[in-house]
Automatic annotation (TrEMBL), chain A:
Residues 89-458 form the Solute-binding protein family domain. Residues 26-44 have a biased composition (Low complexity). One of its GO terms (biological process) is peptide transport. Gene3D superfamilies: Dipeptide-binding Protein, Domain 1 (3.90.76.10), Dipeptide-binding Protein, Domain 3 (3.10.105.10), Periplasmic binding protein-like II (3.40.190.10). Belongs to the bacterial solute-binding protein 5 family. InterPro entries: Peptide/Ni-bd, SBP_5, SBP_5_dom. Keywords: Lipoprotein, Signal, Transport. GO terms for cellular component: ATP-binding cassette (ABC) transporter complex; periplasmic space. It comes from the Bacteria. The lineage of its organism: Bacteria, Bacillati, Bacillota, Bacilli, Bacillales. This is Hemin-binding lipoprotein.
TrEMBL record, chain B:
One of its GO terms (cellular component) is plasma membrane. The keyword Membrane applies. This is Glutathione transport system permease protein gsiD. InterPro entries: ABC_transport_permease (IPR053385), BP-dependent_transpt_permease (IPR050366), MetI-like (IPR000515), MetI-like_sf (IPR035906), OppC_N (IPR025966). It comes from Bhargavaea cecembensis DSE10. The lineage of its organism: Bacteria, Bacillati, Bacillota, Bacilli, Bacillales.
Length: 538, 296
């Protein structure tokens, strides 16, 4: 018996020693990697970019979340680019383009001599293959393609009739009907051109092994921790990129991320709390960046749930909530109060609409008129994570809770883990919920149609608001090519939405970023997809 | 083996001159620290009962024009990020914390005692099952178990209370069980059995009252832990929900302002510290007074 025990112990000891040896080996490897990643000066220039969450997939056409785009924008390039800090159209992989009179044909001239990271040539054939891949997909595989181009091959709503290559460097898009924001759609990060060889060889694995033409090449992805990309030595733009490596690190807590920046663990931080502005401006080692505002934070009311089916109740909420107090306290003024579902920087913004005044008495009257003189009980959903359009959902919810208490409505604040929150809200399980949206192409369509049209119930229309008149206007606006007529249509659409009030529009925020003082050339893009090829260290 | 030593000398009912409780009070009175602790506890109990009368403001009177004001004559403890009076919220918070503290401990004492008595008195397989159950529960770090329970039930103050009660059950259960094991060897129990007394009567009229002293000590100390655990759950967003002025939640709300408005954190923190200190001092005093081993 005793002897048996001794041997067991001896074997255990040996096994654990072997295991420990293996472990320390791995540990050392990880250690050296970590060090080189943290190094921001010296031989190799590495930028560590801290952000709130991890990417979902690195194949941008398969996802819609901002954190995926942020990385993909540096690996892939689009045919047309946005301006440095706006959504004007600039040459991308296509150096010039031409639209036919009737708006049905677009001819794009491509850059020559561009190569994918895997060494294959970028040419008209590659562009055609990319669009064929998306058009042959379905809503599950390429959700954003559906919302931007009206469906897939064979669908009636599908806008693109054909994509053809004419020679090596000319691509012709033929549309079934005119689509006003067509070129803007092409410029969205989702439609970055990937290497056909790579996605044909491994369609499923492409999201974890992306191959594009961009300034950086994919190196590795540690889930929920970091994504590393490195300089594309063969990049076709002379002298770019300036950095050797970029590491995207996920640090969910805003405070922890700022601390990591202050201690030098990261070089650039997204999602800075407005209340930390002063701390950063006072620190000589740091600089503050403002992301031009292209977003909306709102309180959505699910119209399929009582009593929010009643327009009067929704209008009452619009009068009850003190937007200015919320902005002063929890955006620290880095936002402007919202009255429309699109931000004022979009030309279609209807400034003649008068926002609902903060007026609790009026709100009470409306509630009484709707048949709820004593208010009611409801759940108020608050986002569990900081978002660029709302830095602290829980605090905003607490102000709203008090505003509602003042008009007799008892709201219980509820929160779920972020993915669950979105899923449950999209199924219409929330009475009222805080949420927001950052525009991806700077077009009104990307806000109003995506968020409030009946077509998008179940995807991005969380309120289940469905108005046939609005739908007709939005579809008409999509096909209208004349800018002024189009803006008039959107002006009308905003009036309808204002009257029906499916949301309480809260604020258009100016998201803040901070970086170490020696970073140069960083320009925060309004869509949240920052291309880092010009970034350098002093 | 050690039973012979720890076996308590049962207080003989004939000694009317100084009853066991009287004796305990005399012992307790001698300890200055214990009295100090009791005074703190008494103060917070008074605050809890009289809170709404004393507090200058309600718990949720937001005023954005007055947010994050430093302590002043108008707001003794300053204001928080919603412009609410922190003094008022701390006073109202006493009720929440003490409520959770007392009732969670009462819950765990009742369930724990019941299980402990059954395990200790009947022994054999009943004892094995209950004791292993306690072991399993004690194997988890208590706060982790509480988080798990709240996650299942959903975050609210009531569920936090339930979770705290559940995680403390094994402590009381094991305590009672060991007392019962030693008491049931005593002659008066044997005598009671001999005259044909029913098990239930033996358990509840003889064994239970005689095992109560350590439970009272442990209970007082457990209130302190329970308050801390409730604050921890509140801090993690799993306890009291907005706008309840639970101290742990107040700390969590204040953590963004640590640099610029430390008073939002200091006062709820002090309140937690003081109540926990009070209950601990009082508990220590009670142990000295009630523990037969300590008697000279």
């Amino acid at each position: 018996m005793k002897k048996g025990k001794f041997w067991t112990l001896a074997v255990l000891l040996i096994v654990s020693m072997v295991l420990a040896a293996c472990q320390s080996g791995n540990g050392e490897e990880a250690g050296t990697e970590g060090e080189s990643a943290g190094e921001s000066s010296g031989g190799s220039k590495t930028l560590v970019f801290g952000r709130g969450g991890d990417s979902v997939s690195l194949d941008p056409s398969r996802v819609t979340d901002g954190e995926s785009m942020k990385v993909a924008a540096n690996i892939f390039e689009t045919l047309i680019n946005f301006g440095e800090q706006d959504t004007t159209l600039q040459p991308g992989l296509a150096k010039e383009w031409e639209a036919s009179e009737d708006g049905l044909t677009y001819t794009l001239q491509l850059e020559e001599g561009v190569k994918f990271h895997d060494g294959t040539d970028f040419n008209a054939e590659a562009v055609v293959k990319n669009f064929e891949r998306w058009a042959n997909g379905d809503a599950d595989t390429f959700p954003y393609y559906q919302s931007m181009f009206g469906g897939f091959k064979g669908d009636e709503g599908h806008v693109i009739e054909a994509v053809t290559a004419e020679g090596d460097h000319t691509v012709v898009f033929t549309l079934k009907r005119p689509q006003a924001p067509f070129l803007k759609n092409l410029a969205m990060t989702m439609f970055g051109i990937g290497s056909p060889e790579a996605f044909e060889a491994d369609a499923e694995g492409f999201g974890e092994n992306p191959v594009g033409t961009g300034p950086f090449k994919f190196v590795e992805w540690k889930r929920n921790d970091s994504i590393t990309i490195e300089k594309n030595e063969e990049y076709w733009k002379e002298g770019l990129p300036k950095l050797d490596r970029v590491v995207f690190r996920s640090i969910p807590d805003n405070g922890a991320r700022l601390n990591a920046l202050i201690t030098g663990d990261i070089d650039l931080a997204d999602g800075i709390n407005p209340s930390d502005q002063a701390t950063i401006s006072d620190d000589d080692n740091l600089q503050l960046f403002e992301r031009p505002s292209l977003n909306i934070g709102y309180l959505g009311m699910t119209v399929t749930r009582e009593p929010f089916g009643d327009k009067l109740v929704r209008q009452a909420f619009n009068h009850a909530i003190d937007r200015q107090a919320i902005i002063d306290a929890f955006f620290e003024g880095a936002a402007e109060p919202a009255k429309n579902p699109i931000p004022p920087s979009i030309p279609a913004y209807n400034d003649s609409i008068e926002g609902y005044e903060y007026d609790p008495e009026k709100a009470k009257e409306l509630l009484a008129e709707a048949g709820y003189p004593d208010g009611f009980e409801m759940e108020l959903w608050a986002m569990p994570v900081p978002r660029p359009y709302m830095p602290d959902g829980a605090k905003v919810a607490e102000v709203i809770q008090k505003n509602l208490a003042d008009i007799g409505v008892t709201a219980e604040i509820v929160s779920y883990e972020w993915a669950t929150y979105l899923e449950k809200a999209s199924k219409g399980e929330a009475d009222a919920f805080l949420l927001g949206w950052t525009g991806d192409n700077g077009d009104a369509d990307n806000f109003i149609y995506a968020l409030l049209d009946g077509d998008n119930i179940g995807s991005n229309n969380y309120t289940y608001y469905d108005n046939a008149e609005l739908h007709d206007i939005l579809i008409e606006a999509q096909t209208e090519v004349d800018e002024d007529t189009r803006n008039e249509l959107y002006a009308k659409a905003q009036e309808i939405i204002h009257e029906d009030a499916p949301w309480v529009p809260l604020a258009h925020s100016t998201p803040l970023l901070a970086g170490s003082a020696d970073i140069t050339g960083f320009k925060a893009h309004p869509t949240g997809s920052d291309i880092l090829s010009n970034v350098d260290f002093n | 083996m050690s039973e012979a030593i720890t076996q308590p000398v049962p207080e003989s009912p004939e000694e009317k001159t100084a009853g066991p409780w009287r004796e305990a009070w005399n012992g307790f009175r001698k300890s200055k620290a214990a009295l100090f602790g009791a005074a703190i506890v008494l103060m917070f109990v008074l605050l809890a009962f009289a809170g709404p009368l004393i507090a200058p403001e309600g718990i949720n009177e937001q005023d954005m024009s007055k947010r994050l004001m430093a302590p002043s004559a108008e707001h003794w403890f300053g204001t928080d990020d919603f412009g609410r009076d922190i003094l008022s919220r701390v006073i109202h918070g006493a009720r929440i914390s003490l409520w959770v503290g007392f009732f969670s401990v009462i819950g765990s004492v009742i369930v724990g005692s019941l299980l402990g008595i059954i395990a200790g008195y009947y022994g054999r397989w009943v004892d094995t099952i209950i004791s292993r159950l306690f072991d399993i529960m004690l194997a988890f770090p208590s706060i982790l178990l509480a988080i798990a329970i709240v996650s299942v039930l959903g975050p609210s103050l009531q569920n936090a209370l339930i979770a705290i009660a559940v995680i403390n059950i094994p402590n009381f259960g094991r305590l009672i069980r060991s007392r019962v094991l030693s008491i049931k060897q005593d002659e008066y129990i044997t005598a009671a059995k001999g005259i044909g007394m029913k098990d239930s009567r033996i358990l509840f009229s003889h064994i239970l009252p005689n095992s109560m002293a350590p439970v009272i000590v442990q209970g007082t100390l457990a209130v302190a832990t329970a308050i801390l655990e409730a604050a921890a759950l509140g801090f993690l967003g799993l306890g009291a929900q907005a706008p309840a002025p639970e101290w742990g939640k107040m700390l969590s709300d204040a953590r963004n302002y640590l640099r610029d408005a430390p008073w939002t954190m200091i006062f709820p923190g002090l309140a937690i510290m003081l109540t926990v200190l009070g209950f601990n001092l009082m508990g220590d005093g009670l142990r000295d007074a009630l523990d037969p081993k300590m008697k000279s």
